[in-house]
Amino acid sequence: MHRILLIALISMSIKAGAKESDTIKVYFDIAVYNLNSNAKQQLDSLAYNDVLIPKKKYGIIGYADYLGTESSNVTLSENRANAVKDYLLGLGIQEEYIETVTGVGEVSREQEQANGYPEDRRVDIVIGGFKPKKNKPDVKPGPPKKGIDIAKVKKNETIRLDKIFFVPGSHFVRDESLEQLVQLYLILKDNPTVKISIEGHICCHIANTYDGYDFDSKDFRLSENRAKQVYNFLIEKGIDRDRLSYKGLSNKQPLISPERTPMDENMNRRVEIRIIDK
Question: Dihedral of CA 52/54/55/58: which sign?
């Protein structure tokens, strides 16, 4: 009875917050993958208020902060994602509606703190899975696409991953890029004959070197390192390395030239995939 009353008391605020976003964030204690009481109450309340309902698709993505080793953080993030999946099943969510469950390891940070970043010790529940939101069609009305429509791309054509963003001077992707990385992984998983080349691009003028300087790896391979970052993500998720290659193209193929604004620079700071074989 006490638990039902507690759920009812906090439900209105949780439901309102969930409606502001398609992603629910569930936080964990340090170095732990079991849900704590706050996380359980949060999920119970969302289910109580029909925010989490049985016949709706979900994507579940686990994270860790940088404390611990890289490999242990991948395992921790995967365990956190699976813990949330198991709890959702217990709430009546059917497994067939859970589109993907994955852990991506640690979230990179430029500045370290002794106890890490609590906001990085989390799982994101993406309501509706990884289908893009319905937007007005560019040319003709039609059914919404699910991510990248690989069937319509010919050999040697490129697809711009326009939702993968990088920190300036860094090969690390921003947090908001994860959804499209997972989309790319799922497409390759579902189309096992497709082979791709991952092509990295940078913005801005560079002098006396072919490529930009990467402040993370301390070398002049910024565009190559960005492509390699996507390559490594796919390898870690189980895509056969024989299906993948990567290269850096520096700033030689800008989408916008000249660059007059920070937005122009961000558009040129990108990764594209080229279809090598289908």
Answer: positive
Q: For residue 98, report the phi and psi dihedrals to the nearest 5 degrees.
A: -90, 105
Residues 6 or more apart whose Cβ sits within 8 Å of residue 178: 61, 104, 124
* pLDDT at residue 227 in the model: 95
CA-CA distance, 59 to 114, in Å (whole number)?
31
Place of tokens 């209105």: 12
Domains of the chain, by residue range, sit at 2-127, 150-277
In order of 32, 43, 199, 244, the CA distances from 125 in angstroms are 18, 10, 30, 29
Which string of b and e fits 60-90 if b means at least 16 CB within 10 Å? bbbbbbbbbeeeebbbbbbbbbbbbbebbee
Topology of domain 150-277, per CATH? 60s Ribosomal Protein L30; Chain: A; (3.30.1330)
- Tell me which residues of the chain have a pLDDT lower than 50: 1-21, 131-146
- Measure the CA–CA gap between 267 and 240, rounded to whole angstroms: 29
Tell me, what amino acid is at 66? Answer: Y
